[in-house]
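stage 2 :: seqdesign
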């Protein structure tokens, strides 16, 4: 199994696979994240610097590939090409967790829980948008628990004071007073960017 991306989703996918006894490789770009993954997994999973060559090498050697790439505010890069999919073993499976951001495989297209899989070149694709929707109560409770502290700050202090007091809230501001205040979003759509601090002051 190869996991492309060692963030939260990739880490948990790799942990589950290691627990099931799979031979796991995690491809990650960030040096700090590589160190953290190395320390956590030790010799139970390989942690490899992600590159075009390493992606092709490990994807072609895998029975299961999980694409877990996230660039906040931007579309996921297409790291697995159509040519790589063609060269995979028939019956291999790819799971594109990044499908909500457009997917990180060139052959990805969003599917639903009612019709979750399709096949390209004898490779089974699972690209369900909003995968947590498979367990709606559990995911809703988890999301509520994560969001509630921020909602309370906004309700108690008002949005300007809450953003001034909490840098995490300020970083989460995407649009304010008709201006795009998140750089990746502005770049993705070719729009002007305004520093959030200027509008939230």
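stage 2 :: out
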């Amino acid at each position: 199994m190869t996991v492309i991306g060692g963030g939260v989703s990739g880490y948990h996918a790799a942990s589950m696979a290691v627990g099931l006894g799979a031979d796991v490789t995690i491809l990650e770009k960030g040096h700090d994240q590589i160190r953290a993954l190395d320390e956590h997994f030790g010799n139970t999973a390989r942690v490899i610097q992600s590159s075009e060559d390493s992606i092709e090498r490990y994807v072609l050697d895998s029975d299961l590939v999980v694409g877990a790439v996230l660039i906040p505010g931007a579309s996921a890069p297409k790291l697995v090409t159509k040519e790589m999919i063609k060269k995979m073993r028939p019956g291999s499976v790819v799971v594109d967790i990044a499908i909500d951001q457009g997917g990180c495989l060139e052959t990805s297209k969003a599917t639903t829980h009612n019709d979750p899989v399709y096949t390209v070149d004898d490779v089974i694709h699972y690209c369900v948008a909003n995968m947590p929707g498979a367990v709606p109560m559990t995911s809703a409770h988890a999301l509520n628990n994560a969001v509630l502290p921020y909602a309370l700050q906004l309700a108690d202090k008002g949005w300007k004071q809450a953003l001034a007091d909490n840098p995490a809230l300020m970083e989460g501001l995407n649009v304010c007073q008709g201006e795009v205040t998140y750089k990746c979003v502005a770049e993705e759509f070719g729009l002007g960017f305004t520093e959030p601090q200027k509008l939230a002051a």
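stage 3 :: structure notes
- The radius of gyration is 19 Å.
- Residues 136-200 form one domain.
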